[in-house]
Amino acid sequence: MSDQPVSPGKLAESLKSLQKQKGLPPVHLWNPDFCGDIDMKICRDGSWMYMGSPIARESMVKLFSTILRHDDDDCFYLVTPVEKVRIQVEDAPFVAVSVESKESGMVFTTNVGDEVILNQEHPLWVEVDPSTGEPSPYIRVRAQLDALIHRNVFYQLIEMAEEKTTDEGVELFISSHSQSFTLGTLGDH
Predict the structure, then answer these.
(1) How far apart are CA 171 and CA 189, in angstroms?
(2) Do residues 151 and 157 touch, judged by C-beta distance below 8 A?
(3) What SS3 state is found at 69?
């Protein structure tokens, strides 16, 4: 690891040529040397912090989100063709801030502007905290990168949900692309 701190400005400089491209950069194809850790963190609420202060420029956050990668070592990295730096992520790197039911299926929008159609490639699941019983719903955005579904959006999904009686109780589920995704079970029936 490098002893030199990596700055967001340096990363942004190496991204200038990438901004001209359409779509997401092919970070899965880039394999630069690891340059060290950067004091950057994505908080559970989707805000990005650098050295303890919020990154206020939305355009910079969106730019960084396009070069984010979650590797098999369970670490998150910002990756360019020439450098790779590790950052911290409290929960999921994105937050799903809206959902809309369209002909194409349930479309989620993240805090950085990604649009994701709920389907087999982009599944939804709910993890329940064993000590509090509180649900945390997620949707896969892209290659090992997920979005925590905002509480208000989760309430919207519950309002849209269909019910099915099971041995465990009443299961709530939503459908998209001819697939069902469970939101949870309501106690005994």
Answers:
(1) 10
(2) no
(3) strand
d(CA 41, CA 46): 10
- List, in sequence order, every beta strand (DSSP E) within 66-161: 68-70, 76-79, 84-89, 94-102, 105-110, 115-117, 124-128, 135-142, 145-149
Q: How far apart are CA 23 and CA 66, in angstroms?
A: 9
Cα–Cα distance measured from residue 183 to residue 172, given in angstroms and rounded to the nearest whole number = 5
* CA dist., res. 189 & res. 18, Å (int): 55
In the chain (189 residues long), the average pLDDT of successive 10-residue segments reads 52 55 84 95 97 94 95 96 96 97 93 96 95 94 96 95 86 92 76
- Domains along the chain? 8-89 (3.10.540.10), 94-186 (2.30.270.10)
What's the pLDDT score for residue 170? 87
